[in-house]
Design goal:
Helices cover 69% and strands 0% of the residues. It is mainly α and 194 residues long. The longest helix has 27 residues.
């Protein structure tokens, strides 16, 4: 059934969408776009975004450890284009993908970060969720994941984002240097003062 769904996605292929989906999927490589967003929140945007940026970093770390470090190796599901060689292998770049399909690291990281953003900042969180959905869709379009890989990863990633939010709220309730920097807007030098 899942392979049929992916073959349906292949019917959507055209040069413009192929290019766009490849570029969108590249945004999620290594959580790159989310790391850039977190860095902007921590160091460039107004101080009120610092706690959001720190939460995004925590969410990405949780996703990396659980999804990529543990679950992929536990389930060891082969990628769709390895299971069915009839899939068009766009850009041939995917010939070099030899890690496992389940769960989707791109999707997990994207939803972890997007949910973390949404929980602190409702308005900005909508854009983050749309970007996460686009990255997730690109993984199906490019046939590098099965639908269940992506759907499960939406759930897992959302849970990681929620866990990071709760963890950060708990940490920031306590007085200390981290609270001063992330909540009260003190200089980052405060973290290293004796």
């Amino acid at each position: 059934m899942e392979l049929k769904i992916l073959h349906w996605f292949e019917e959507l292929h055209n040069p413009v969408l192929d290019f766009l989906m490849y570029q969108i999927t590249c945004l999620g490589n290594g959580g790159l776009i989310w790391l850039v967003i977190a860095a902007a929140m921590l160091f460039v945007l107004p101080k009120r975004y610092r706690k959001t940026g720190a939460t995004v970093v925590a969410a990405l770390l949780i996703s990396l450890v659980i999804c990529n470090g543990i679950m992929k190796n536990l389930y060891q599901r082969v990628r769709p284009f390895h299971a069915d060689p009839t899939f068009e292998n766009l850009y041939r770049v995917f010939d070099r993908i030899y890690d496992w399909s389940f769960p989707s690291g791109h999707t997990s990281a994207s939803f972890a970060a997007a949910v973390a953003i949404r929980l602190w900042n409702k308005k900005e969180g909508i854009g983050a969720l749309v970007l996460a959905a686009l990255i997730s869709f690109s993984r199906l379009y490019l046939t590098v994941h099965y639908p269940t890989d992506v759907l499960a990863s939406v759930v897992f990633g959302s849970a990681y984002g929620g866990a990071a939010y709760l963890l950060m709220k708990k940490v920031l309730e306590k007085p200390g240097r981290l609270r001063k920097v992330l909540v009260e807007g003190a200089s980052y030098k405060t973290l290293w003062k004796k």
